[in-house]
Amino acid sequence: MISKPRGTRDFLPDEMEKRKVLENIMRDVAERYGYREVSTPTFEHLELFTKKSGESILKEIYHFKDKSGRDLALRPELTAAVTRMILEECHAMPRPLRFYYFSNCFRYERPQKGRYREFWQFGVELVGSSMPQADVEVIALAYDIMKSAGVDFSLHVGHVGILRDMLKDFKGETAQLMRLIDKKDHKGLQESLESLNAPEELIEKTLTFTKLLGGPEILDEAETIAGSSEHIDYLRGVCEMLDLLKLDYSVDLGIARGLDYYTGVVFEAYAEGLGAQNQICGGGSYRLAHLFGSRDIPSTGFALGFDRIAELSQFKKEERGLIAVVSVKGYEKEAIKTARELRTRYQVVTDVMGRNMKNQLSNASDIGAKLAVIIGKEEVEQGFITVKNLETGKQWKSSIDELISGYEQFLE
Ligand code: HAM
User: Fold this and answer.
1) Number of domains in the chain
2) Do 18 and 120 reside in the same domain of the chain?
3) For 281, which of 168, 228, 269, 305 could close a Cys bridge (C-beta 3.0–4.6 Å)?
4) Which of 101, 260, 308, 309 to mutate to test the pocket of ligand 1 (most atoms within 8 A of CB)?
5) Domain identity same for 295 and 165
6) Nearest residue CA, atom 29 of ligand 1?
């Protein structure tokens, strides 16, 4: 027996149908904001992800050499891949670019509830604007998708620029310090700052600052601690617009994000009922293009943890009404012909197991068919079909056209 690799999952039809409904809801909201879908390769050159995604993700990358010795990697996320695609393919497209994607990603993490080695992200990238309106648009879009998905969440909005400025004297160590902040490891942060001989006052300031959480008014406090800055003003402007749109959120100055490419406003959403892996969305504004030899392109985006949201959402596929065409021995050919005609409107199955009539009918009930169409000698010779309601047992003499014209008449 060979089982699936650790951290991967199989999805059976019930689960798949639920995921499809959720996926379509997400697509619908993104498209209402004017975003269009893109798709990039499942694997890329390893270098694409090692340039700036950060050390933590590096350890998590599935990478391998192909038969020609190239270093390739399964994508751990899509922001770097979409940036690469834009530089390679989208020179002539009008700015800004509004793209969305729904794709599987791979990370070599320790699997647990809500954390997988293959998982799906629904994400967007808004590329080409450095205005606060761009951040607001992307945050509002994430918010509307999560609302439409029917999950309870809290949205936190921060700004990595303020933190980076505070830590700018530790150049090479900033990424490491940001990681500790991201993990809310205040003790580790304090120890690291001490080992870097940071002045007492700065340690104090950093610890207080990263714990600031509340309404936009905490930005005044942030200013007292960190000094006034264009970043704080920018974030204030973003908050004003979020308030205007009546979004429910908290300002959280301790958001550092696990990836290193963020430069400005950052945000995360956490859901109830998921346990430790409760982050269902992460994003912010970032700069990546310059790493790939291009002019810098201000961009902002997010990715939703699709699997975590699917776990919480209660959607069910709308029933399409399955019909089973069953036949008496010797009339199988007529049955498959009838089934094909009915498929112009309905979901229809026929017997492929050589079952007798009784077993065909009981299998039809087992797979959830509401109606059976019976084809036998009398039906074929006299040119009608028998429609049987599998719940009530009631039967009608009917025709293919009549059944195609409407299904409900047989459901009473
Ligand atoms: P991220 O925070 O690394 O950001 O991932 C986004 C979301 O993917 C997380 O909030 C989480 O819900 C989900 N996720 C991450 N790892 C796993 C896992 N192992 N199993 C299940 N779900 C997981 C990014 O990837 C950025 N590219 C987002 C972005 C787009 N920033 C700008 N544009």
Assistant:
1) 2
2) yes
3) 269
4) 308
5) yes
6) 302
